Amino acid sequence: MKRKTALWLILTALVVAISALLPEAALAIQDARLEGAVDTQRVETVDLSLLAELSIEDTLYMVQTYQSRVRLDTGRQLNEGQAGRIAIDTLEEVYDRIGYASGFYVTDTSPWLYVGPGGESVVLWEVAASGQEEVPLWAMLGYEALRRVDATALVDERSGQVVSLRIRLADETSGESVLPDPVPTALPYGEVPVEEIQDISNAVGYTMLWMFADRLGLRDAPRDVIQDGEYGTYLTLTTDGGTPFTVTVSCDLNELRFN
Fold first, then answer.
1. pTM higher than the cut 0.85
2. H helical segments located in the chain
């Protein structure tokens, strides 16, 4: 009898001990199962906002209407050297068509994520460059002299094309860009009729606009959609969503600007 009692006591102690260990064992089994599930279902972390594929029209529109932008550490398809080369090549082509320039070089390059009002996004490289040029409008009016200019180009990473360009005269003494307001209408040798300046400005605008239309694959756009407006020569386009907008080229004595 005593032997049976002792056996029951031993069995009871074993049951109590096993019961105490069961929660830890169950948790260990559950942890192992979850760890295995994580291993079998692991996905790469991808910033989906970088994967948007906008058309050229939508990218041009984004430059005008973006809501915010964030500087990135690196691009996805271009590096600094490639983006800088695209910007310099574009600048050189501009002056092959409208005038003379020399010695353009890149001063800064950085990629930015531009985000639109609907959450659409695109990666654009902002490239700063400097060089010397004969200011096209001044040269056409008879004042031919090289001046230092600063340029800023936005390079669309997906298409590898410049979608915005600004070239402006620089202050030689301070090294900073200057944009007098209002734009002067007098050259060193005398007053120039506003009508003459406007005609030459329009001619430069047409040349630049068709150059960019060719580079961006918009060469099929009918020529009658390029018009002269109050703020320059412009091309009417439509986004993929059906929104009409204009891409403008402006030219005055101090600045050239595309989009």
1. no
2. 2-40, 56-65, 80-98, 136-140, 194-215
